[in-house]
Amino acid sequence: MKNFKFLITFLAIVLLCSCTNKTTYKNINYIEISKKDSQNSYHGLVKSNLSTILSFQSEGKLIFLPYSKGDFVKKGQVIARLDGALYNIKKNEELQRLQEAKVNLDKQKSYYKRMDVLHKAGAISDNDWENAYFELKSLEKEIEIEKEKVNYLNKQISYNIIIAPYDGYISQKFCDIGAILKESDPVVELINSQGFQVEIMVNQKNISGIKLNQEVKVTILDKIYDGTISHIAKSSLNEGGFIVKISLQNSSSLYQGMSADVEIENEKNNFTLPLKCVYREDEQGYIYKIIDIKDNIGKIEKEKIELGKIQNENVEVLKGLNYFDKVVCDSNVHQNNEKVRL
Q1: Residue range 53-81+163-192 in CATH 2.40.50.100
Q2: Which CATH class is domain 26-38+270-341?
Q3: Structure confidence by residue, pLDDT tens digits, 55-71
Q4: How far is CA 104 from CA 108, 109, 222, 313, in A?
Q5: pTM recorded for the entire structure
């Protein structure tokens, strides 16, 4: 009986000692700062760097437009034509008159040379010489007028033709063959096939970290494209918002209207934390970070930070945070050097 009591006492002492030596740690809630915390994601649409509404510079009946929406055309290719038969008839008439005037001018030049020789020899009167000279100058003036008429008709005929100013795709078609068009009525919209951009909206809070010529990544149909911010402007449609345009490289396989996702890294390297993770003392901001982590056990360290704007339940951290920092978000832990379990 004494041996049994001794054994029980011994086991109790061993158990008590083992419990006394075992260290317990608090489980902690925390946020790990990843690179995504300094990035902002946006959704936008692919647009051409250049689009043009093409129209005629004269009025008439549309007789040629063999293209549909989505068709590709080359630079210099005729896209549409108005009925210009009347101008072509007039041009042919003026060309005929011009040719006749040139023949008459050649004859008159030969005649004038003979008259000029005779006049200098005193064989003809001043009046005959003046008549020959006057007729020569009249024919030269007539040729100038005929040339001006032909140039005018060529210009009018060119107004009846629409030529592609660059390689591109027809994105819209506003009329069909047979339509009676006025000057400047839209015929087609042509978009440049060589350059595309993505347009996104950015709010006032995030625009300060976005800069012109900043490089970004754009995902379109699971393919990543390199992009460069080429335009930042205040939006008239969204109060407090900005339009940001991103020029894309190697974008020949894209087309207008495709959906795009954009990741823009904040150049200021600012981060945003929930307000519950930030503490204030004497107007100074602090956070508690978990450091010296080993086997999922770490130590709490208090660190000073510089605060920025507060919006909703979040606060901007301007200084004091780095990638992969683990920030305590637990109101029960406010002790420096306290050990915690992740």
Answers
A1: yes
A2: mainly beta
A3: 998 888 999 999 998 89
A4: 6, 9, 74, 93
A5: 0.46
